[in-house]
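Let us practice reading a record.
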Amino acid sequence: MTSAPVLPVDRPATAPRSFHVLAKPSGPICNLDCSYCFFLEKEALYPGDRFRMTDDVLHAYIRQVIESQAAPEVTIAWQGGEPTLMGLDFFRRAVAYAEECGGPHRTLHHTIQTNGTLLTDEWCAFLREKQFLVGISIDGPELLHDVYRVDKQGRPTYERVKVGLDRLTRAGVEWNVLCTVHAANQALPVEVYRFFRDELGAKFVQFIPIVERVTEGSDELTDRSVNPAAWGEFLTAVFDEWVRHDVGEVFVQMFDAALASWYGAPAALCIFAETCGNAVALEHNGDLYSCDHFVDPAHLLGNITETHMVELMASPQQRAFGNAKRDTLPTQCRECPVLFACRGECPKNRVRVTAAGEPGLNELCEGYLHFFTHIDGVMRLMVDALARGGHAGEVVETFASAGRNDPCPCGSGRKAKHCHG
């Protein structure tokens, strides 16, 4: 039976015009056992469950996410756990149903985040045909990747990930790199970045810091977590390499987000928005949670098979969750010169107290302050270029013409190797 294209749903006044839903069709189930994975423990939320999204939930997700978006472009996003465990036929059904619901006036974008180890040529042909954007989780060269990204038997996974990535490349699938930054790779930023750029041929890179609590609710972090100062140095070193060689050629999500902040555009990442709450997580059984990092009973909004997701997004619970990001900022953050770019980052990382004893300081504050201060000069140059009708890549030409010993991109006038922001 063919479904008629859906129409925009009536939305409560408190509902956002658009929002992002990250669907987890296999819940937290994964074929790997990465040491720092915060989602594997979510299996305890559903004891005895098979963790398989049914077609009823699948249809509700796709239909509601299309109905809910005020914009003509709709992103249908899949993550896990490992979503490819659902099998290729599940995703064939998902795309077919989305195409039925979308109609001629909707542009659908399909994305999937995967560890890449289960990808076959058949998978890659499908992903290419349906124009999926595929995120591949990889933490750098083999020796760095394999420190924490292991399988259930504790075996390294890099070679299997690389086989999957090679298949994607041969098939012509658009892909990007998601790299977590942690204790094992934090001291080698340029090596990691050059590996992605030169060895893998990556054009889009995301860097995600690992901030991992020893126990739920604790302010003590694991030894795997990135050091705050090292996080700032990591971003700074990659930025200096990128701005001299790769602007317009390689796209680093963190740097694009920073440019949006300096330009005065809406935040490109939820972590840098003044408020949050417009990016939610959908579990395999239809349960909708406030955020991917807050999948717990206190942040369960409801189930989309019982209540339309647009109503759940408009709920006082979710609006309060989103506004708390702004309203709970400590004074130190409110008076910070880089507040416009940082906005206190993600609430999940606000586990420290300020010098004045206020709670809510971000674990990575030191690193972000260093990074955003360091890039200020370059960001201003890029904004000026854009305001003149030029392009941000003009900055690369400026530094290239100055030669290897040109002043630091932070605008301080010091040599890069001596600059500390």
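A brief commentary: The two ends are 61 Å apart (CA to CA).
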